[in-house]
C-alpha cells in the first residue's frame, strides 16, 4: 500500500483491547480514537467499526478478516512509539494536540481555576493556573510533572508528520 492511504475525512479509529497505549497517544494528538476496555469481543468491535465508519486497528489478523468491518489495519510493532509512527504515516490524520481526553476520547475545553476549586489533588490548585476539562467524563488536565514526556510525543509527531 502506498502511504498515506487516502481515507474519507475525518479519519476515525477504533482500537482493540491490546492497543490501549496507542489509543491514549492518538488522543493526545487530538485524533478520534475509540477504545473498548474491558474487551467487548471481536463481533462487537467489527459491528462498531462498520456502524461508526471507524478504521479498526488491531494486532489480531483474524479480527481484521471480518467482512463487516469498515476498514482495518494490522499494527506490526509491540512498541507504542513505533505503533504511533506507523498509524500516522499510514493514514496521515490531522493533528490537533491537547484537544481530546486521553481517558475517554471526549473533547477538552478550557476550565477556569475558580471552577476547579476543591476538585484537584493536594497542592495542584496552588501550583498550577491553567486547566482543561473533558466535556464527557469530567477528567481534569494540567501541565503537571509528566507534561514534558507528553510534550515530547507531540513534538515528535509534529516534526515528523506535520500539523
List the topology elements:
Layout: E1 13-15, H1 20-28, E2 33-35, H2 42-52, E3 55-58, H3 61-64, E4 71-74, H4 80-91, E5 108-111, H5 113-116, H6 124-127, E6 131-134, E7 140-141, H7 147-161
Parallel strand pairs: 1-2, 1-3, 3-4
Antiparallel strand pairs: 5-6, 6-7
Helix pairs in contact: 1-4
What tags apply to this protein structure?
single chain; alpha/beta; 3-stranded antiparallel beta sheet; 7 helices; 163 residues
Account of the 3D structure:
With 163 residues, this protein is an alpha/beta fold. 36% of the residues lie in helices and 15% in strands. It is built from seven helices and seven strands; from the N terminus they run βαβαβαβαβααββα. It has helices at 20-28, 42-52, 61-64, 80-91, 113-116, 124-127, 147-161, and strands at 13-15, 33-35, 55-58, 71-74, 108-111, 131-134, 140-141. A four-stranded parallel β-sheet has the order 2-1-3-4, with helices on both faces. Strands 5-6-7 form a three-stranded antiparallel β-sheet. Helix 1 crosses helix 4. The longest helix has 15 residues, at 147-161.
Task: Offer a concise description of the structure.
With 163 residues, this protein is α/β, with parallel strands linked by helices. It has helices at 20-28, 42-52, 61-64, 80-91, 113-116, 124-127, 147-161; strands at 13-15, 33-35, 55-58, 71-74, 108-111, 131-134, 140-141.
Amino acid at each position: 500500500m502506498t502511504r498515506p492511504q487516502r481515507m474519507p475525512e475525518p479519519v476515525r479509529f477504533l482500537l482493540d483491547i491490546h492497543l490501549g497505549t496507542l489509543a491514549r497517544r492518538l488522543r493526545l494528538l487530538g485524533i478520534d480514537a475509540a477504545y473498548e476496555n474491558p474487551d467487548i469481543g471481536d463481533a462487537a468491535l467489527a459491528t462498531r467499526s462498520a456502524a461508526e465508519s471507524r478504521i479498526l486497528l488491531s494486532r489480531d489478523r483474524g479480527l481484521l478478516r471480518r467482512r463487516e468491518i469498515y476498514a482495518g489495519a494490522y499494527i506490526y510493532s509491540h512498541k507504542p512509539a513505533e505503533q504511533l509512527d506507523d498509524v500516522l504515516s499510514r493514514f496521515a490524520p490531522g493533528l490537533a494536540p491537547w484537544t481530546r481526553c486521553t481517558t475517554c476520547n471526549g473533547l477538552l475545553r478550557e476550565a477556569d481555576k475558580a471552577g476547579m476549586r476543591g476538585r484537584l489533588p493536594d497542592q495542584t490548585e496552588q501550583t498550577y493556573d491553567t486547566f482543561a476539562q473533558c466535556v464527557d467524563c469530567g477528567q481534569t488536565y494540567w501541565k503537571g510533572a509528566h507534561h514534558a514526556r507528553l510534550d515530547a510525543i507531540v513534538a515528535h509527531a509534529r516534526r515528523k508528520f506535520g500539523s
